[in-house]
Amino acid sequence: MADELRAYLLYSVGVSGGHFGAGLGVVELSVALHHIFHTPHDRLVWDVGHQAYPHKILTGRRETMLSIRQHGGLAAFPRRAESEYDTFGVGHSSTSISAALGMALAAKAQGDKRRVCAIIGDGALTAGMAFEALAHAGHVDANLLVILNDNEMSISENVGGMATYLARVLSSKPYLKMREEGKSAVASARRIGTCPAHRRAYERHGEPRHAV
Questions:
Q1: Separation CA 144–CA 147 (nearest Å)
Q2: Sign of the C-alpha dihedral, residues 60, 199, 52, 177?
Q3: Which stretches are annotated as coiled coil (predicted)?
Q4: For the segment 51-109, what is each residue's pLDDT rounded down to a tens digit?
């Protein structure tokens, strides 16, 4: 499924234009989240939205992905009016944790067992709103999961204490060892063979009008 999703993401963005780097980095994560969480009852809150293209494809909008950035087409970001799976209308970065925390606290007040997850990038995490939300989340008892997508895809170089701390963590020996062991485990479990997803996508839809 991840290979098929990745292939169609490349094809659709090649046709319509838009952002595909962040989306390619969360293909497996998007599949896993929609498998583990009972969406749309459980809430997935994507920060910014560039990484939400796989989420859109997985939630019933595959056939309309080519209309992104066209008049009357899909929004390039999560949009509540577009799908019940888009839980928060994103227009600016660093808002996902605050929004998700509000949803989690509302669910708690209503006695709802709903789970809430915010997915935020390393660039967005450096903003003050994200820090405020993390501080608030640590003070209250809410069923909230925050996933850091540290893909080093910020517009400019990240600075500050958090960026420095994450750099130390990602370059530490325990993390590097765990990462390599994880890669080995995934490689051993992966079915051997070449996935023809890219070929099928292009045979089905033709060549994209724009180079990727």
A1: 10
A2: positive
A3: none
A4: 899 999 999 999 999 998 889 999 989 999 999 999 999 877 899 999 999 999 999 99
Cα–Cα dist 172/166, whole Å: 10
Mean pLDDT over residues 30-40, rounded? 96
Strand partners, 144: 116
Place of tokens 């765990």: 178
Exposed (0-12), middle (13-18) or buried (19+): which is 125, by Cβ within 10 Å?
Answer: buried
Q: Tell me, what amino acid is at 74?
A: L
Predicted structure pTM score:
0.77
Give the largest CA-CA distance in the chain.
53
Give the full edge-to-edge strand order of the sheet including 116-121.
43-46, 116-121, 144-149
Query: For the chain, how big is the Rg over CA atoms in Å?
Result: 18
Give me the amino acid identity at 72: G
- Are 89 and 41 in contact, with CB atoms under 8 Å apart? no
DSSP state of 64: G
Please, are residues 54 and 26 in contact by the beta-carbon 8 Å criterion? yes
Classify 43 as helix, strand or coil.
strand
CA angle 182, 28, 124 (to 5 degrees): 95
